[in-house]
Amino acid sequence: MSPDYQDLSPKDMKIADIDLGTRPILLAPMEDVTDPAFRLMCKRFGADMVYTEFVSADALIRAVSKTEQKLAIADEERPVAIQIYGRDVPTMVEAARIVEQARPDVLDLNFGCPVKRVAGKGAGAGMLRDIPKMLEITRAVVDAVKIPVTVKTRLGWDADHKIIVTLAEQLQDCGIAALTIHGRTRAQMYTGEADWTLIGEVKNNPRMHIPIIGNGDVTTPQRAKECFDRYGVDAVMIGRASFGRPWIFKEVRHYLDTGEELTGLTPQWKLNVLRQEVADSINLLDERRGILHVRRHLAASPLFKGIPNFRETRIAMLRAETQEELFRILDEIEQKYLSE
User: Fold this and answer.
1) What is the Cα–Cα distance from 217 to 224, expressed in whole angstroms?
2) Where are the domains of the chain?
């Protein structure tokens, strides 16, 4: 049973020498989501640290240009972590050294991605089936670079192998500076509810001294506060709840600081944020690729929840191919449903 931590006065959280302040909220690394434009937007809304899309170690050492582009970071988004994944020691070490040259604040190792093309080949959450290899990679990468190395992983491979409490100690012994735990097994993928009890158990283990970051199903400011208070985590990481809602960081920070819900974010204001997200994506890529990249995240925005008969409009958003077309749909939504 996790103790209630709410009576403890919160302290600043640090990853090595990087001070993230009190009760920091982090933007999770997500493929096809956390590009530089989106990271900067979340940063402006209050994300205390952001992560790049995950980077394939194999592709990086082969100098695949699309992969190398993922290493581009801006000073405005610091502190920023670059995350890599792979399945063997020499490749991960070489990739880590390449990443270090890009000057991120943190290098994160992905031992949690559950998708078949990654985990099925032994990388990402696939490492949960070969703990000795995971630890060997972690030790080797920590020894190879001078920047702080962190790890993101899951509770275990499946319900019968929830090994995170022991694994967390083993990873800490490898020299990592922080550990992020997603409260699901690999078998769960993204289904069911995230289980934070084991995350709390890791945090409450007296042998653990590195920061523990909790991740999974943090979709409201109230839930973020509960995760800090009930499980004692040092930071909370938000992933899918930021789709079409980058202002969630503003809402969470306000609630953590004041205990009150943030008011004044009108539907029109939120719609303008989504328009800016479209424009930023196009500026970063080009119109065709920018629209392809951003439209599905817009269509998932909770801003449109509850709008009657929205299915056809959502499909139209998912098919839009130009900024003009997408903005026309947003204008129609505003005039029809969101006007005061």
Assistant:
1) 9
2) 12-258, 267-338
The single-letter code of the amino acid at 288 is: R
Whether 160 and 194 have beta carbons less than 8 Å apart is answered as no
Whole-angstrom distance, CA of residue 242 vs CA of residue 247: 8
Cis preceding-peptide flag for 221 (omega within 30 of 0): no
Q: Is 227 a catalytic residue?
A: no
194 Cβ contact partners less than 8 Å away, ≥ 6 residues apart: 182, 183, 184, 215, 216, 217
CATH architecture of 12-258: Alpha-Beta Barrel (3.20)
Q: Kindly report, residue by residue over 26-41, the tens digit of the pLDDT.
A: 999 998 899 999 999 9
Q: What is the pTM of this model?
A: 0.93
Buried b (16+ CB within 10 A) or exposed e, 106-130: bbbbbbbbbeeebbeeebbbbbbee
What are the pLDDT digits (tens) for 191-224? 989 999 999 999 999 999 999 999 999 999 999 9
Radius of gyration of the chain (CA): 20
